[in-house]
């Protein structure tokens, strides 16, 4: 797929930038901030691909990609964007109807929400064995947003990024604290375009602004 931003002056902050990000990060962190970016740079047009799975900057499907691992290719410029924390969460309604989990071993007696094993698109999303070996889902989805909806509806306990946990209750907060990192990559052919540089700079400022949501327990 050809990226629109291949054409245009390298020093003009305007035109289209296509950005691929993880579904949850794109929905909760990036999307609400886009109107302010447009107000700041009216000539800029953003195409946000926020979905399960990623489009590739190395294949020129997008101008900028935010991924869970650094792309292993020399065709892209890669930099760490931010770490983020994940934990176990459940809805108040679920907790009111089930015995409290006092340890990770107690999770075996609970409904567990998570990813569909053979549809996990990145190894970094294999959370459950990191929480407790052998833990298995009773309700699962390939979509982190769908998982959150299941959890909110009382479907069970699941691992979510802390920035997606509003209205939910954290379970075993001191025992289960997972960390992951987002990586930012751009194809070397577009890295120096002014519009790409502007969006990269904006993303770096955005994650600093949202640090308390991304890393709520940062010491």
Describe the structure.
The chain is of the alpha/beta class and 219 residues long. It has two domains: 114 residues, Periplasmic binding protein-like II (D-Maltodextrin-Binding Protein, domain 2), CATH 3.40.190; 95 residues, D-Maltodextrin-Binding Protein, domain 2 (3-Layer(aba) Sandwich), CATH 3.40.190.10. Helix content is 25%, strand content 26%. The protein has seven helices and nine strands; from the N terminus they run βααβββαβαβαβββαα. Strands 1, 2, 3, 4, 5, 6, 7, 8 and 9 form a nine-stranded mixed β-sheet that branches. It starts with 14 loop residues before the first strand and ends in a 5-residue tail after the last helix. The N terminus is likely disordered.
Considering DSSP H and I runs of 4 or more, what fraction of the residues is helical? 10-25%
Q: Strand content of the residues, in percent?
A: 25-35%
Order of SSEs: EHHEEEHEHEHEEEHH
Distance between the termini: 43 Å
What count of structural domains?
Answer: 2
CATH class of the largest domain: Alpha Beta
- Outline: elongated
The chain-level mean pLDDT equals 89
What structural class is derived from the secondary structure elements? alpha/beta
- Extract low-pLDDT stretches: 1-9
Tell me the CATH superfamily of the largest domain. Periplasmic binding protein-like II
Number of helices: 7
* CATH third-level topology of the largest domain: D-Maltodextrin-Binding Protein, domain 2
Largest sheet: 9 strands, mixed
Q: Could you tell me the number of beta strands?
A: 9
Report the radius of gyration as a whole number of Å.
19 Å
Q: Supply the CATH architecture of the largest domain.
A: 3-Layer(aba) Sandwich
